[in-house]
RNA sequence: GCCGAAGUGGUGGAAUUGGUAGACACGAUGGAUUCAAAAUCCAUUGCUCACAAGGCUUGCGGGUUCGAUUCCCGCCUUCGGUACCA
C-alpha cells in the first residue's frame, strides 16, 4: 500500500471538523492551556509559505499539550481592518467589506471550482476574485485556478491545524468591534490616580473636584492643566468642566503632529515617506498639527516597564519595549527668557529636561526643536527670515531622517537669550532639528563639553565650549563618562563627582523654584485617530465641539456607507463623505447628516480607530467570542485567565504588544480581567525569506569611434545592438567559472570562448564594433521553473515571459543553470512559494515537517522547495515501517498475538535496541518541544525511523508510542496509522509516551583521546572506571605511545564520561 | 544614527553545561534495478595534497583555557525595528 497523503489528509480534516475534535470547552476538570497565534491580516495575495511557520509551531505545541492531558484553547481569527483593502477600494470602488470577505472565504466551491457569482456574462472571471488583477482571465484559461483567490480559511484548513474555528473573530465584524468601541468608552470614562497607582472611574475624580478642587488630586493629566478650587469648579460652565475632564481621561482629544500630505489629502506613515515626499506620487509632505484622539499610555509607563520582569518573553523584545518606554532620571529646569526678546517677552519660560543637571554650569546655549511653540514668540525681527526658512526646511524632513542624520549639522539663531538660573548670564537660544518636538519638552540646555551632539553644534556655529570637567581635555571631543566626572568651574558644585553633583544641583534648583528632580519617559501618548475609512468608527458625537460617548446599549455604531473612500474636498476623513452619519439623541440612532441641527441631531466623529485597536483585546474575546451581553463572561475569563503561549513576529514588539499590555493593565485596574499581563510566554518566529532564481543575460560593452575621432565606450543590451536575435542568456555555471568573483571582464582576457564562438556563428558579419568587456544582467525567473539542481526549464521560461521566446540560451555541459540569491519573498521577485502547491504535491504533513526542519523557529531562514523531498521521503519510510507485510500490507505484531505464519508464531518482544531508540527519541523530542527546538525533533524522528527500519521492527509496543510522538508534527499520517492500529478515538488525546531511563543506560563510552586538544583516536572503555583507571588504560594503548613518540606527557586531563586530553 | 538578531561544507542546518566540529537532510558523483523513465536501494562527498601520512577549517584580528562554534575584547558584513504597513 502506497502512502496516499491526498486521501488521508482530506479524510481526517473532514473527520476532525465533523466531530469537532478540537473544540475547547469553557468548563473542564482538566488544566487549561491557551496557545495563541497572532491573527493574520487577510490579504488578497493569500498565504505564502512564510505565514504558517508560527502557526505550525503553535499547533505542534497545542497538540503536544493535549497529549499531556490539558484542555487546550487554540483559536484563530482575522485582523480584518487595514489599509490594503482600503487602497483597493479607492482604486476600484469595491467595498472593503466585500474584498475582505473574499480574501477570507475565497471564490471556490468545495470541488475547487470558481463560484458562479464571480463569473461574468462573457465567461470572464470577475476582477475581485483574481489575485493578479492586471490582466483578464476566463474560465477557459487552463490554469485560471492559480490566479483565483482561494481564501485564508481554505488555505489554513488544508494545513491540518487544530484550531477551534467555532471561536473565530474578525475585527471588522460589527459584533466584534462593538466591544472595541466599548473598551474605548471605558477608557474615556477613566482617569489615572497616581496615589493608588490605578485607573479609576471618572466619577471619583469629579467628586474629588467637587470636594476640594484639583490641587490635591494626584493624577496623570495634560501638562497645561490649571489649578482650580472647589468654588472655581462649581462656577465653571458645563463645557469648561468637560474641557477640564478631557485633560484627565485615559483617552482624550489633543493636537498632535502628523505627516500631512496636502496633495493626497491624507496623513502618511513614516515609511510611506521617502526623501520628504510621499512614496505614492512623490507629493510634498509637511508636519502638521491635527486634533486627534490620544491614548494616555504614558500613565502606565512605569508599570509597563515593571511588568516586563514578570513575563517570559524574549529578551530582545523586552529590550525594545524598555528602550521604547525610555525611562531616564534627571531634572526639569526652567530658563527665563530675557525680556530683551521682543513682543510678548518678559514672562516666558523654557522648560527643559536634562539627565545631567550636574553639568548646568557648562550650558553655553539652548536648542529648541524648530516646532517648539515658543520659537515664533521669541525670535527677533532680524532673525525672522532665517528662522522661518529653517523651520520650513525641517518640516519636510521625517523624524527618522532627523534622528539618523548625525553628520549634517544645521540650525538657526533666534536672536533671543535665556537666563542662566544660577549665573544669571544670558544664554543664546538656537533652534536645531536634532531636537525632536515630541521628545522630552522639545528643548535642550546644551552642554557642549559633555554631549557630542551639542559639541558638534557649538563647533559648527562658533559657540563657546566652557569646560567644567576637572583634568579633562575637551579640545577634540565632548566628555560623557559619568563615572570619571569631577565637576569644576561650577560654583557650589566644584569638586563633586557625578552623583553628588546631580543631587546638589537639583536641591539648589528647587530652592530657586526653577527646577526639580524628574523622571522622564521617551514614551509618548499614542495617537488613536486615523483619517481612514476601513477601521472601527468611534462611538462619539460632538455637541458644541465637545465629544460625547454614545451609551453602551446603542453599540455597535456601524461604519456608514460612502460613495468614495477618499478624503473629502475640504480635507476631512472619508467618513465625511457619508450622507448618513449623524447622531439623533431622541431616537438614539444614526441618521442623515443633513439633519444635523445642534439641538437633538449632532455630527459623529469622522476619524476611525487605528489597526491596533482591534487586536488589543482579541485574546480575551476568544474566551467567549459570541457573548452579546458582555465582552466575555466572568466565568470564561476566570477559567482561561491568560495566554500561556503566544507565538508571533518580533515586528510587533513596540506596536501591538505594547498597546495590548497597556489595555490589559487598564482592564485589570477596572476589574475586568484577573491578571495584568495577558501572555505569560511569548516566542518570536523568524521570517522565511525567498530564494530568488536569477538568469544571466549577456551585456557587452563596445568601443565606437565617431566621425570627429572621439572614442566612446558604452554598455548596451546585446539585443539592442544586434537585430538578428534577442537576448543571449548564459548558464550560471559557465558565468561563474569564467567570471569568478568579478563583475565584468575584459574581452581581451580570452575568456568566454563559447560566447565568442556563438557570436561568430550567428553574427560575425553584423559586428562592426570593437567589444571591450563582458558583463551580465540578472533577470528574475519564477522559482518554480527551476529544479532542485538549479536547472532552468527553458521552455517554461519562454512561455512565462514571451519577450524571451526568441532569446538564445548558452548551456554548459548540456545544462542551463541559474544563480541563487536570498531576498524577501515578494511578487516582484517571483520567489513567492504558495503552500497550496506544496500541499498538492507533497501533502500538508510534509509541508509542516519541512517548515520545522528548515531551522530554528526564531531565526530568519531562506525557503528552498527542493529540500522538501527529504522530509517527504521520511514520511514514506514511516509509512513503510507500518506496512512491512506482503505487498506492503499494514503489519504490526503484538506480544501475545496468536498470529501464525506458516506455523511460526510471529509475536515478538521488541528488541532492546528498539526500546533504546524509542526512548532516546521520547526524551529528545520532549526536550525539544519544551525548548521550541522543532527542527532537531524532525532529525531525531528520521534517525529513529531509519534505525527501526534497519531492525525490521514491527512491534505494537514500539510503533504505537512512535506514532503519538510524531503526531503533533504530522497529524494526518499518524491519525491514519493510529486508526489502523485499531483505535476508534482520535490520536490527538492519546497520552504522550513516558520516557524510561532504564532503556537508554549505557555501560561503556567511546572516549575521544586528544593530544594537545586535538582528537587523534577513540577508545571504548567501561563507564564505571575512575580517573586513574582511565588514564592507565589510555597510556597503555599503543596509539598513545605512537602519538607521544617517546615524549613524557606533562599532564593528562581525564573527564570521566567525556574526554581524555594528553598535554605534552 | 540608535536598538536588536545572525554569520559553521556547494545549500538548509547540528553540536542542550567549554569536551570527538559538520548529526539529519538537500545537492553532486559513481553504481544497482528498469526496454526506458519515475520511484527505490547502495557507496562516496568540508578544504588541501596523486594516494597515504599529514596540514588547514565555525565572518576577520587578538585574548583566556589542557581544550573555544561556545567565554572576553576589537573590527567587518547581512537582516529586522525605529511611533499611521500589518
UniProtKB/TrEMBL annotation:
Keywords: Aminoacyl-tRNA synthetase, ATP-binding, Cytoplasm, Ligase, Nucleotide-binding, Protein biosynthesis. The keyword Ligase applies. A motif ('KMSKS' region) lies at residues 824-828. One of its GO terms (cellular component) is cytosol. It catalyses: tRNA(Leu) + L-leucine + ATP = L-leucyl-tRNA(Leu) + AMP + diphosphate. One of its GO terms (molecular function) is aminoacyl-tRNA deacylase activity. InterPro entries: aa-tRNA-synth_I_CS (IPR001412), aa-tRNA-synth_Ia (IPR002300), Leu-tRNA-ligase (IPR002302), Leu_tRNA-synth_edit (IPR025709), M/V/L/I-tRNA-synth_anticd-bd (IPR013155), Rossmann-like_a/b/a_fold (IPR014729), tRNAsynth_Ia_anticodon-bd (IPR009080), Val/Leu/Ile-tRNA-synth_edit (IPR009008). Residues 323-509 form the Leucyl-tRNA synthetase editing domain. It comes from the Bacteria. GO terms for biological process: leucyl-tRNA aminoacylation. It is found in: Cytoplasm. Its EC number is 6.1.1.4. Residues 918-1028 form the Methionyl/Valyl/Leucyl/Isoleucyl-tRNA synthetase anticodon-binding domain. Residues 11-91 form the Aminoacyl-tRNA synthetase class Ia domain. ATP binds at residue 827. Belongs to the class-I aminoacyl-tRNA synthetase family. This is Leucine--tRNA ligase. It comes from Pricia antarctica.
Amino acid at each position: 500500500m502506497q502512502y496516499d497523503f491526498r486521501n488521508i489528509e482530506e479524510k481526517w480534516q473532514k473527520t476532525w471538523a465533523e466531530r469537532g475534535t478540537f473544540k475547547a470547552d469553557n468548563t473542564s476538570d482538566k488544566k487549561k492551556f491557551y496557545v495563541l497565534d497572532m491573527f493574520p491580516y487577510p490579504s488578497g495575495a493569500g498565504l505564502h509559505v512564510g505565514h504558517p511557520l508560527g502557526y505550525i509551531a503553535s499547533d505542534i505545541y497545542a497538540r503536544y499539550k493535549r497529549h499531556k492531558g490539558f484542555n487546550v484553547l487554540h483559536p484563530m481569527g482575522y485582523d480584518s481592518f487595514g489599509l490594503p483593502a482600503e487602497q483597493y477600494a479607492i482604486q476600484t470602488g469595491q467595498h472593503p467589506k466585500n474584498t475582505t470577505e473574499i480574501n477570507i472565504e475565497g471564490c471556490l466551491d468545495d470541488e475547487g471550482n470558481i463560484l458562479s457569482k464571480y463569473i461574468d456574462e462573457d465567461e470572464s472571471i470577475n476582477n475581485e476574485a483574481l489575485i493578479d488583477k492586471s490582466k483578464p482571465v476566463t474560465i477557459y484559461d487552463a490554469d485560471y485556478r492559480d490566479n483565483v483567490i482561494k481564501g485564508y480559511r481554505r488555505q489554513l484548513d488544508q494545513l491540518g491545524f487544530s484550531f477551534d474555528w467555532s471561536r473565530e473573530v474578525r475585527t471588522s465584524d460589527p459584533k466584534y468591534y462593538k466591544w472595541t468601541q466599548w473598551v474605548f468608552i471605558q477608557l474615556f470614562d477613566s482617569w489615572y490616580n497616581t496615589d493608588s497607582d490605578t485607573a479609576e472611574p471618572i466619577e471619583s475624580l469629579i467628586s474629588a473636584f467637587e470636594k476640594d478642587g484639583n490641587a490635591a488630586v494626584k493624577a496623570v493629566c495634560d501638562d497645561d492643566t490649571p489649578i482650580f478650587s472647589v468654588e472655581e469648579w462649581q462656577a465653571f460652565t458645563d463645557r469648561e468642566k468637560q474641557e477640564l475632564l478631557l485633560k484627565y481621561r485615559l483617552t482624550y482629544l489633543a493636537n498632535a503632529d502628523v505627516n500631512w500630505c496636502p496633495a493626497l489629502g491624507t496623513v502618511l506613515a513614516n515609511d510611506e515617506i521617502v526623501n520628504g515626499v510621499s512614496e505614492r506620487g512623490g507629493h510634498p509632505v509637511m508636519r502638521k498639527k491635527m486634533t486627534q484622539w490620544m491614548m494616555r499610555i504614558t500613565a502606565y509607563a512605569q508599570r509597563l516597564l515593571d511588568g516586563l520582569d514578570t513575563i517570559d518573553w524574549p529578551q530582545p523584545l523586552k529590550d525594545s519595549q524598555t528602550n521604547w518606554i525610555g525611562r531616564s532620571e534627571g531634572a526639569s529646569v526652567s530658563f527665563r527668557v530675557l525680556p530683551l526678546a521682543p513682543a510678548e517677552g518678559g514672562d516666558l519660560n523654557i522648560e527643559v529636561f536634562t539627565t545631567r543637571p550636574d553639568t548646568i554650569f557648562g550650558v553655553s546655549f539652548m536648542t529648541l526643536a524648530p516646532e517648539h511653540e515658543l520659537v515664533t514668540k521669541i525670535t527677533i525681527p532680524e532673525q525672522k527670515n532665517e528662522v522661518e526658512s529653517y523651520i520650513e526646511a525641517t518640516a519636510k524632513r521625517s523624524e527618522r531622517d532627523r534622528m539618523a542624520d548625525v553628520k549634517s549639522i544645521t540650525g538657526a539663531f533666534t536672536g533671543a537669550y535665556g537666563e542662566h538660573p544660577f549665573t544669571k548670564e544670558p544664554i543664546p537660544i538656537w533652534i536645531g532639528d536634532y531636537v525632536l518636538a515630541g521628545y522630552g519638552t522639545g528643548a535642550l540646555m546644551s552642554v557642549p563639553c559633555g554631549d557630542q551632539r551639542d559639541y558638534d553644534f557649538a563647533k559648527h556655529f562658533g559657540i563657546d565650549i566652557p569646560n567644567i570637567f576637572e583634568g579633562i581635555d575637551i579640545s577634540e571631543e565632548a566628555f560623557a563618562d559619568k563615572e570619571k566626572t569631577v565637576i569644576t568651574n561650577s560654583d557650589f558644585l566644584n569638586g563633586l563627582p557625578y552623583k553628588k553633583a546631580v543631587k546638589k544641583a537639583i536641591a539648589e534648583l528647587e530652592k530657586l523654584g526653577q527646577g526639580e528632580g524628574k523622571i522622564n519617559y521617551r514614551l509618548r501618548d499614542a495617537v488613536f485617530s486615523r483619517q481612514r475609512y476601513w477601521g472601527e468608527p468611534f462611538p462619539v458625537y460632538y455637541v458644541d465641539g465637545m465629544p460625547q460617548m454614545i451609551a453602551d446599549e446603542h453599540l455597535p455604531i456601524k461604519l456608514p456607507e460612502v460613495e468614495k473612500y477618499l478624503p473629502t474636498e475640504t480635507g476631512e476623513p472619508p467618513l465625511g463623505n457619508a450622507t448618513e452619519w449623524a447622531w439623533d439623541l431622541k431616537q438614539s440612532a444614526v441618521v442623515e447628516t443633513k439633519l444635523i441641527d445642534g439641538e437633538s441631531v449632532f455630527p459623529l466623529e469622522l476619524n476611525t480607530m487605528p489597526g491596533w485597536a482591534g487586536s488589543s483585546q482579541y485574546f480575551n474575546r476568544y474566551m467567549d467570542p459570541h457573548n452579546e451581553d458582555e465582552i466575555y463572561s466572568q466565568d470564561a475569563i476566570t477559567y482561561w485567565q491568560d495566554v500561556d503561549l503566544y507565538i508571533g513576529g518580533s515586528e510587533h514588539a513596540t506596536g501591538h504588544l505594547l498597546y495590548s499590555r497597556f489595555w490589559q493593565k487598564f482592564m485589570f485596574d477596572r476589574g475586568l480581567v484577573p491578571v495584568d499581563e495577558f501572555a505569560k510566554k511569548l516566542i518570536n518566529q523568524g521570517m522565511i525569506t525567498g530564494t530568488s532564481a536569477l538568469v544571466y543575460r549577456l551585456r557587452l560593452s563596445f568601443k565606437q569611434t565617431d566621425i570627429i575621432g572621439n572614442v566612446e565606450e558604452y554598455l548596451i543590451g546585446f539585443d539592442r545592438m544586434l537585430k538578428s536575435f534577442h537576448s543571449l542568456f548564459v548558464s550560471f555555471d559557465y558565468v561563474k567559472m569564467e567570471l569568478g568573483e568579478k563583475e565584468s571582464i575584459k574581452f581581451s582576457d580570452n575568456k568566454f570562448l563559447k560566447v565568442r564562438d556563438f557570436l561568430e556563428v550567428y553574427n560575425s558579419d553584423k559586428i562592426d564594433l570593437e567589444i571591450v568587456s563582458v558583463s551580465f544582467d540578472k533577470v528574475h525567473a519564477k522559482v518554480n521553473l527551476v529544479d532542485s539542481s538549479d536547472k532552468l526549464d527553458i521552455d517554461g521560461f519562454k512561455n512565462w515571459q514571451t519577450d524571451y521566446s526568441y532569446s538564445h540560451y548558452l548551456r554548459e555541459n548540456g545544462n542551463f543553470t541559474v544563480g541563487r540569491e536570498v531576498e524577501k519573498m515578494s511578487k516582484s521577485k517571483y520567489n513567492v512559494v504558495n503552500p497550496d502547491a506544496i500541499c498538492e504535491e507533497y501533502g500538508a504533513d510534509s509541508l509542516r515537517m519541512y517548515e520545522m526542519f528548515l531551522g530554528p523557529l526564531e531565526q530568519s531562514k531562506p525557503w528552498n522547495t527542493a529540500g522538501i523531498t527529504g522530509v517527504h521521503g521520511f514520511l514514506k519510510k514511516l509509512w513503510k515501517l507500518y506496512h512491512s507485510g506482503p505487498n506492503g500490507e499494514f503489519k504490526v505484531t503484538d506480544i501475545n498475538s496468536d498470529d501464525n505464519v506458516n506455523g511460526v508464531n510471529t509475536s515478538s518482544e521488541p528488541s532492546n535496541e528498539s526500546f533504546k531508540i524509542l526512548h532516546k527519541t521520547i526524551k529528545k523530542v520532549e526536550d525539544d518541544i519544551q525548548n521550541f527546538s522543532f527542527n532537531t525533533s524532525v532529525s531525531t524522528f528520521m534517525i529513529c525511523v531509519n534505525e527501526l527500519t534497519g531492525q525490521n521492527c514491527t512491534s505494537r509496543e514500539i510503533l504505537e508510542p512512535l506514532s503519538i510522538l510524531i503526531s503533533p508534527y504530522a497529524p494526518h499520517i499518524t491519525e491514519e496509522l493510529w486508526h489502523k492500529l485499531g483505535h476508534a478515538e482520535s490520536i490527538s488525546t492519546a497520552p504522550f509516551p513516558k520516557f524510561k531511563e532504564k532503556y537508554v543506560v549505557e555501560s561503556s563510552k567511546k572516549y575521544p583521546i586528544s593530544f594537545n586538544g586535538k582528537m587523534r583516536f577513540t577508545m571504548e572503555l567501561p563507564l564505571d572506571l575512575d580517573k586513574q583507571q582511565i588514564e592507565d588504560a589510555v597510556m597503555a594503548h599503543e596509539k598513545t605511545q605512537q602519538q607521544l613518540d617517546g615524549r613524557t606527557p606533562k599532564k593528562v586531563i581525564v573527564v570521566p564520561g567525556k574526554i581524555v586530553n594528553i598535554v605534552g
